[in-house]
Amino acid sequence: MCGVGSTVAGRDPCFKPSPQGYDADVRGMDRREFLLAGASAGAALVLPGCGGGPDRRTSTNFGGGSGYDGPPIELSFWNGFTGGDGPSMLAMIDDFGKKQKNVKVKMVTARWEDFYQKVPAAVSSGQGPDVAIMHVDQMATNAAHDAILPLDDLVSELGLQESDFAPEVWRAGEFQGRRYGVPLDMHPLALYSNVAVLEDAGLDPKQPPQNREEYEAALEELKGKGIKGSWVTPFFFTGGLQFMSLLWQFGGELTNADGTRATWNSDAGVEAMEWMRSLIKKGYSATNVGQDADNIAFKNGESAFMWNGAWGIADYGSTVGFKFQTSPLPQIGSERAAWSNSHNFVIPRPSHDDRNRLQAAKVFIDFITQSPKWAESGMIPARKTAREAEAFKKLEPQTQIARQIPDIHFQVAVPGLSDVRESTLDQALAQAVNGEKTVKDALDDSVKRANDLLARNREAYSA
């Protein structure tokens, strides 16, 4: 659910400081440059289409086969990898260039919030990139706008199928029976442990809590030592991610099967949010936690546990003198579950068909998704060949988080759902966690508003 919501450095995988030192061919764009790049297409995305007319193509000529046999070509590659993930991608692009000497890749980066606003506009004006990265929860919206192409032919030509990936992330890339993304990674929520805090409290950091009983017992032990062990934040990062994980653990769902109605006010949703509130009531969490205060407290030794995404590996790993460990989320409810998002490769709708360009993009996607180097950014590769590489197996924080791949959940592919969530569930989270409303009232009110917005979206996107 990136590109919408929090923009706190080190917390949100959609927002990291811009890297320096990109050369003229592989570089980052500053905010002004990126906004100007899409200015000719208009400032905002207009429902229901991109402005260039619906494409709705059923097949695309990606050139056949798994190689590139055309003349020298340069691909434009847009993404939001503006932080520590940028150098990892650049290294992979360099590896690709050594193998495919007649395909040059120019990487252009921008903050995700700018990226998602301007890519559809650039596409509608014929100025879009050849290949791009999108979060899987943004793809349905862009597919509905005809901003990206279906990739069924691409994956067929490469021989890719569900068994080549983690099943959940593969299925998440489909919308209305078509495939729109090739998964690069997964970045699920996980449990991080502050080694020093646990050792000082007499707890073994190598034995992280695995269930509700163990987690609450550890928090009670920490409370006895004057430590509020697990801070609950009223903000989407990471309170919203924690709530969604717990909702699934208690057997609930964000929406009904087709995403037409919000259902997070179910008994499971109430139980999940009440458990979060209980951590505050029992003194295991500070009250009125500010944005990013939980993350700062974790790194400063004021708390022991942090529910954070896989991007935390890069954040904590670059913090001098900080020792942490990762593990799957404890099972608080009746099921194991963890929220996750995923970066997917997409092909923006081109202004005209270019077999060579599409073929080169296909070969680039195939190469990058197989590289284990992406895991160095903290992400968990989606493709099995990358996760089975020895280089990945040596990365202990990543491999620990990867243990919960069978438990990860993604939201259903519904256009505009992330925007609906931001203006409804995120508000309910803040109201419930801070005690401004009862949990039940906060969730019920937010679901009523969400269902009104979802109904409007269905009319707008079907127009």
Write a structural description:
By secondary structure, the protein is α/β, with parallel strands linked by helices. The chain has 2 domains: 27-184 and 342-388, D-Maltodextrin-Binding Protein, domain 2 (3-Layer(aba) Sandwich); 189-340 and 412-462, D-Maltodextrin-Binding Protein, domain 2. 41% of the residues lie in helices and 13% in strands. The chain has helices spanning 31-37, 85-99, 112-124, 136-144, 152-158, 167-172, 195-200, 212-224, 236-249, 267-281, 293-299, 312-317, 355-369, 384-387, 390-393, 396-402, 417-423, 425-433, 439-462, and strands spanning 27-28, 73-79, 103-109, 131-135, 174-175, 178-179, 182-183, 185-194, 305-309, 324-327, 338-341, 343-346, 380-381, 408-409. The strands form 3 sheets. It has a 6-stranded mixed sheet with strand order 1-3-2-4-12-7, with helices on both faces. Strands 8, 9, 10, 11, 13 and 14 form a 6-stranded mixed sheet that branches. The protein has a two-stranded antiparallel ribbon with strand order 5-6. Strand 5 and strand 6 form a beta hairpin. The longest helix is centred in the last third of the chain and has 24 residues, at 439-462.
Key descriptive features of the protein:
2 domains; 14 strands; globular; 41% helix; single chain; D-Maltodextrin-Binding Protein, domain 2; disordered N terminus; 6-stranded mixed beta sheet
Give the helix proportion (percent range): 40-55%
Number of helices: 19
Q: What's the number of structural domains?
A: 2
Strand order of the largest sheet: 1-3-2-4-12-7
The CATH superfamily of the largest domain appears as: Periplasmic binding protein-like II
Indicate the CATH architecture of the largest domain.
Answer: 3-Layer(aba) Sandwich
Q: Class of the largest domain, according to the CATH hierarchy?
A: Alpha Beta
Low-confidence stretches: 1-54
What's the β-strand tally?
14
How much strand? Answer: 5-15%
Distance between the termini: 25 Å
Whole-number mean pLDDT: 89
Task: Could you tell me the CATH topology label of the largest domain.
Answer: D-Maltodextrin-Binding Protein, domain 2
Largest sheet composition: 6 strands, mixed
The gyration radius over C-alpha positions equals: 22 Å
Mass-distribution shape = globular
| Class derived from helix and strand content | alpha/beta
